Amino acid sequence: MHPRDGWSEGGIRRRPELAGNAISRRELLGAGAGLALAGLLAGCGSAGSASPTGANIVLPRPDRPVKWPTFADNKPIAAGLQPEKNATLQLYNWVDYINEAVVKDFCRKYDCNYQITTFTTMSEGMSKLLSGQLSFDVFFPEVSVLGQLVETKLVRPLNHSYIPNIANTWSDYHNPFYDLGWQYTTPYSIYTTGMAWRKDKVSLAPSWNMPWAGAKYKGKVAILDDYREAISLALLRAGNLDVNTTSPAQIAAAGKALSDLVTTAGVLIDEDDYSEIPSGRTWIHQAWSGDMATSYQYLPKGTSVDVIGYWFPPDGKGPVANDLMVNLRGGSNPVLAHLFIDYMLDVRNALSNYSYVGYMQPLNAVTPQRLIAEKLLPVQLSSTVVRPQDFRTGVQELELPTAANTLWENAWNSVSKGA
What are the structural domains of the chain? Predict the structure, then answer.
């Protein structure tokens, strides 16, 4: 699931002195795990090829990479075209997931206008696109819906000549397992899921096992209100790195472990990691790295950032995920769309974007040292920075087969209803 799934325009905002960079926070659990690809996609072989037979579901995995098909009636734009004139660039993105100042700077450079339309869940975003009633130039999807975008020809193949800044990204994104040859995608943001804690309240060494630690912390522990993240935490606690398991026994055991946690530790279920740890409402919280990167801004006046900790396994074997930027076929400004994607992969623009959203882009020059030196991140929270090796060794919560996904949802329902 996505850390912004379920956000609302009317969510909690930063303190008044930070209103210039205000970010709305989540209120509701996102509705569903995204749209299934059944009946639309073809299976892929070990060599990573795919064909649109419609017989199977393509589920890209690091050990089963996918090279998506291209179509005669959906080709990349020609090279060397000039940007569209008198244009309005149409962006379709999650709520509060881009620094509008960066968009304005782009439009000043290319003499165009812009409109940002938002969605609060991936299901909502995809259903609106599939309705055919809306037309956008650039979309910011999850990896899990890429196959549907390709096979329904909603997304246009990229002409790489317009996107030289791809060279700024980690080499992994020049040939990602979910889109070999980056035919359709470039990366947007990347994040990890770990554990946040109040260092002045908790004497435990950080680990996946923190929430299961005794009566002292009863009522002060929280897990994310997200069925994939929460069930994955139980799997990781048991030493199981397969966060895409289809085993009924493993899924059921993970659900029971979470239910026991709710009963014995008074665990909270919410997505307020970014504010609850700084305020002290919770002392231990399963958390997203991008949330905790900005959490210090929610500290009560006079409280040192030293009290906030964020842990992700030093060996990188924890949940990691990234979002995409794609050029939609129905957009009226394909050249500007390419140029905008390239603009967002410029290091300076990416840093400006990070200063607002807190979720970093996987660029070689965006390092903990750079973020700290430019006063975009306190040194105490440098663990929130995602490293290239995290993408390579981390575990990714990818799309599940429909039957397995139902088991995950059922297990989570038994937990959340008991909270």
Answer: 16-189+323-377 (3.40.190.10), 191-318+396-416 (3.40.190.10)
Q: How many CA atoms lie within 13 A of 369 on its CB side?
A: 2
Tell which residue, 71, 100, 106, 72, has the closest CA to residue 87: 106
Other CB atoms within 10 A of residue 214 CB:
9
Task: Give Cβ neighbours of residue 16 (< 8 Å, ≥ 6 apart).
Answer: none
Instruction: Please report, for residues 3, 171, 262, 269, 282, the alpha-carbon distance to residue 229 in angstroms, rounded to integers and kept in the order given.
Output: 10, 27, 15, 11, 18
Q: Is the dihedral of CA 365, 368, 372, 373 positive or negative?
A: negative
Per-block mean pLDDT, blocks of 10 residues, the chain (419 long):
67 33 29 33 33 56 94 97 98 95 98 96 92 93 93 96 98 96 98 97 92 83 94 96 97 95 88 96 96 96 97 95 96 98 98 95 96 96 94 93 95 84
Q: Which residue has the tokens 């579901």?
A: 57
Helix (H) or strand (E) holding 228, with range, is: helix 227-237
d(CA 196, CA 282): 10
End-to-end Cα distance, the chain: 20
Residue 212 is predicted with a pLDDT of 77
Under 8 Å between Cβ of 155 and 329? yes
pTM: 0.86
Question: Which helix (H) or strand (E) segment is 116 a member of?
Answer: strand 113-119
What is the predicted pLDDT for the residue at 50?
A: 36
Residue 236 DSSP code: H
Nearest one of 224, 287, 217 to 258, comparing CA atoms: 224
Radius of gyration of the chain (CA): 21
Nearest to 266 by CA among 252, 279, 253, 282: 282
Contact (CB, 8 A) for 337 and 331: yes
Distance CA 405, CA 244 (A): 9
d(CA 17, CA 346): 29
Q: What is the structure's pLDDT at 325? A: 98
Q: Residue 194 gets which letter from DSSP?
A: E
